[in-house]
Design brief:
single chain, 325 residues, mainly beta, 10-stranded mixed beta sheet, 7-stranded mixed beta sheet, membrane, transmembrane helix, DUF4179 domain-containing protein
Amino acid sequence: MSKDQELVKVKRDTKSLVIKNLIVMAVLIIIALTGVISWFTNKTEATADGINVICEAPKGLKIAVVQHGEPAPDVNDETQWSEGEITLTKEDYPFLKEQSIIEITSDGTDFYKPKLTQENGKAKPDTSSEWDVADKDSYLSIDVYMKTGEDHMVYLNSGTEISPISTTLTGEQSGNKSDDGDFSKDCIVGAVRLSTVNSADSKLKNLWIPAPQIHYDSDKKEVTLGNTSGDTFKHKYWKVTKNSDGKTGKPTGTAPVEYKDVITNTNNDFKLGKNYDFAMLTKKQPSDKYASGMTTVNIWVDGEDDEARFAMVGGKFKATIKLSL
């Protein structure tokens, strides 16, 4: 094997943390809000043609979606709210034009892009350096505002789903097939994380890993599906303490730590599987016309996961985020 061939082999095995702006995904977000009478199923049609956000709400529940940190909608300005379906397009929501999801690391609330070194042909986070706070376009972060006529608890519905676009993930007939083996690049979904964050105190509400059953073995260059235990369920991230400048942070320790209280399932259907608290809508004053609230939803690819590798660059997934009262 020539030196050039060896170099190519090393690069193909290098963890995706070394990639810069190369993981390009079609992320389809459907936010389906189902009312109290929830035995009627909303009909949704979805296509993976970039980042689209479709919001559906039943009568009596109005929603507005903005990029995280952007000004909140005026609760009394009906032009800023929708009842029924909202489609967030790149034309109407310019921030989507800049979206370029890449590998980062996060505890669900703070997001960082590690500084890297090379060791034995593989990328390794440099814990002696300051790490930059991840650019807001390197992961999807949206604020979901909701309002109703009365106080209500809103739940992240059990039907919430993050799944690969390809229906065949392994074998010669894999969709969006990887150059590294008989498996789909869409197995990148195994490295996807979703968190919801409380707007009142910026604390983590839920942290969900939707596809722990997918595992990529970089030595064998193969993917196994339907795993129920083992290393694929040891989900880790780098703990970082933010500096006073708000733009950088210092890694805590020299090794990643395991998530606590993480939501996973082993039913292979990529669904949440259980209702979780999302937001409490309340009237701040008795005279208020609306009960309102907001929750932040984050979706990212964690570079510490085995499925975040060169072999998965170009993988695609879709997210269906369902809320119910």
